[in-house]
Design goal:
Length: about 180
């Protein structure tokens, strides 16, 4: 008689374990969908590929950016796809603006841009973008903060807003603490 009462208990435990596993699988699936929505649709996360934004950002820093940007403003730091690479740079001009780089000076719409936090001269690259350059609709001109030798719009030209992945909202410092 004991063997008959043990079997229903084991069956009940097995059924309860199966129910818990199904609940766990459902929660894991919901979490995967939530993470995809958060980091695939709303936000992006990438590592800073180089030191071209130093001294503010260094290679290896984790960058959290917002993907659902509607408009970009001057001085926004963005993550973009340009020349087949991921680029992190600062917006210095937008559609309709005319950019000119001469004698180590950046001029936008005829006015010299004073950048008190940039410590390097802004020189044009030989064989790169020709100036003056007027930006077309949905184009932005990007410059890295470490201007000497940086691969930015002076190298590959303006970037379309479609190629901008998002606007940087925070940095998680992984290097040079």
């Amino acid at each position: 008689m004991k063997s008959e009462s043990v079997a229903p208990r084991e069956q009940e435990r097995t059924m309860q374990l199966q129910r818990e596993l199904v609940r766990l699988a459902g929660r894991l699936a919901a979490m995967a969908v939530l993470l995809w929505l958060v980091f695939g649709v709303l936000f992006g996360l990438c590592a800073m590929p180089n030191d071209q934004m130093s001294p503010r950002l260094y290679a290896g820093d984790l960058i959290l950016y917002y993907r659902q940007i509607r408009t970009l403003h001057d001085r926004d730091v963005v993550v973009a796809r340009a020349d087949g690479e991921t680029v992190v740079a600062r917006v210095v001009a937008r559609e309709g603006d005319t950019v000119e780089i001469t004698g180590g000076t950046l001029r936008v719409n005829g006015s010299t841009v004073f950048e008190n936090e940039i410590f390097y001269s802004t020189d044009a690259y030989e064989g790169g973008t020709t100036y003056p350059l007027t930006l077309e609709q949905d184009e932005v001109f990007l410059l890295c903060d470490h201007r000497e030798g940086a691969k930015d719009s002076r190298w590959f030209g303006p970037v379309t807003t479609h190629d901008v992945k998002g606007k940087v909202i925070t940095v998680l410092r992984r290097s040079r603490l």
